[in-house]
Amino acid sequence: MRLTAWVHGRVQGVGFRWWTRCRALELGLTGYAANHADGRVLVVAQGPRESGEQLLQLLRGGATPGRVDQVVADWSEATEQFSGFVER
Fold it and tell me: Does pTM top 0.85 for this prediction?
């Protein structure tokens, strides 16, 4: 499955993408975390649905760097292959 999550809040310049990468790799997910000009971070993670659900809980959990105000998530079928999990 593919998780696409838009993370809103103060999530740029605080190590959020690095933290997300570490959690995703621990869960065996592939994909990326990317800053966007409007201040959001886009997280795209692929792998087992259960692992994606765990990552989503972590993103919403309050223990992230910075401050997460909202996470808007969508699920779909995995359409492309990623190698590892990277920061963009």
Answer: yes
